[in-house]
Amino acid sequence: MHFNSVSTLKTALEQKRISSLELTQLFLNRIQKYDRQVNSYITVTAEKAISSAKLADARRAKGDTAPLLGMPIAQKDIFCTDGVRTSCASRMLDNFIAPYDATLVQKTQAAGMVMLGKTNMDEFAMGSSNETSFYGAVQNPFDIERVPGGSSGGSAAAVAAGLAPIATGTDTGGSIRQPAALCNLTGLKPTYGRISRFGMIAFASSLDQGGPMGRTAEDCALLMNVISGFDERDSTSVNEAVPDFTAHLNAPLKGLKIGLPKEFFTDALNPEMAKLIHDAAKVLEKEGAILKEISLAKSALSVPAYYILASAECSSNLSRFDGVRYGHRAENPKDLLELYCASRAEGFGKEVKRRIMMGTYALSTGYYDAYYVKAQQIRRLIFNDFNNAFSEVDVILGPTTPEIAFKKGEKAADPITMYLSDIYTIAANLAGIPALSMPGGFLQNLPIGVQLMAPIFQEAKLLNIAHRYQQNTDWHTRTPKHFAE
Amino acid sequence: MALTAEDVKKIALLARIKTDDATIPALVTELSKMVTLVETISQEDTHGIDPLSHPLDLELRLREDNITEQPDREKLQQLAPQTESGLYLVPAVIE
């Protein structure tokens, strides 16, 4: 049962073959049994989960038919949860009990979903391997010597190991899609502004976006229906009608134009991986789609532009952590400056400090135009690239990552090689468009991800394509043997 | 571009992050690598290109200047390392 999709579990709950309490207990038991090996949760909220499950069962008994009523979910520990520690995987917030719920959390609660706990992640979402967490690295359930990806690595590993049926993630440069790819899940980064960022701890505000991570496209669609929508408490939230994301999952793909960017299929991509990506495109071609080579000429500039914009925005966002109002405070500072500097030096990990310092440098007097403004101009060029591409094709298909899950420690020594893990995912964040990763096969017994990108607000199209693909393939049903029992 | 130890010390102070002499050399190397990476964009001609700040090119919304919720001071201050009579305590700023 633990590897069932949310849509299957939903039917079981509706037909009263299982109660929410039983289902919740099943996952809590598995967390207790397995999570010492995976380290996918920072905080397990067992008591809270049991009372929410009882409440959901009571709602159902009274005739409530909310679609995800009683469904367990794991929340990335970047979303504020009232009365529950919200650490962002940082020592800085190790003692932080959020005083309110993020809008996304509120929405899942109102829908009757049951939070199992808060998942591990790279500290402040800065990383691609989940090795920068203050609470230790997360293991990839398909090979515990390897990373699950990041920054939403705990969410990915929890679902992959059957320790949650679905989870939330956030994606600033690939943090939903890359771990989804490395853990054989479907993960969707929605359009910027589609899902409220209120109560989601900010990393790079012009790029951050929350989204679902599940076993199937259908599961992601079900969760999207719950978490999407305008929020006046988030000034960047977009007031755009929210469709029923499950309504057109089965729409035929006949005549769909799919672009394959030639810049995504160079020597940087593992050739065996390239073959699997092409195989996935052929499955969609058989379904009636038309494949076409396209060009995203400026895509090579997305990594450097991103590391200016994201670092600059993080340096200002993280200036709020000062050891005064909340979070870690150094002991016995001699003056106010020492209080700030020592609290931040002790509270932040290495990667976070590097990025804050990079951003501080980029924003400092005399450098602003050469770095930040220049990167915003590059951002426009990348945005234009996509606009041109979408005048020729409906969606874009390519790899999610350049390689399979790497070994723990392999890239930790050199931050730059780690940054290049996101070469195919960053452009979608810069352009604000929705992008999805879906399971597309295995290399050396490790999963690989196929990425799809669409014009703004066309998440339903991506979910439709991924769903049709999943009707014709069974990669997404493969689960790690070690966690079968 | 290679940064110097002095550059890094200055950036660390601006960023309000305490460094010690032992950690500076590694930071110099790592930050120099990052700067080299990001500087590759300087070769791209962006003359006349409008900077893009919001990916959907939208203006941020404004709202009426009304009080919509009252903060619960006690609840918020429970999170603070040190408070007294509803105030946040820090080391003396004025002698």
Tag the structure with descriptive keywords:
heterodimer, A: 485 residues, alpha/beta, Amidase signature (AS) enzymes, three-stranded mixed β-sheet, 11 strands, 13% strand, globular, B: 95 residues, mainly alpha, two-stranded antiparallel ribbon, 2 strands, 4% strand
Question: Can you tell me about this structure?
Answer:
The complex is a heterodimer of chains A (485) and B (95). Chain A is of the alpha/beta class and 485 residues long. Chain A has 15 helices and 11 strands. Chain A has one domain (6-256, 392-483): Amidase signature (AS) enzymes. In chain A, 38% of the residues lie in helices and 13% in strands. In chain A, the strands form 2 sheets. An 8-stranded mixed beta sheet of chain A has the order 4-6-5-10-11-9-7-8, sandwiched between helices. Chain A has a 3-stranded mixed beta sheet with strand order 1-3-2, sandwiched between helices. Chain A is globular and about 65 Å long. Chain B is mainly alpha-helical and 95 residues long. Chain B has a domain at 5-42. Chain B has helices at residues 5-14, 24-38, 73-77; strands at residues 83-84, 87-88. Chain B is flat. The chains are: A alpha/beta (485), B mainly alpha (95). At the A-B interface, helix 9, helix 10, helix 11, helix 12 and helix 13 of A face helix 1 and helix 2 of B.
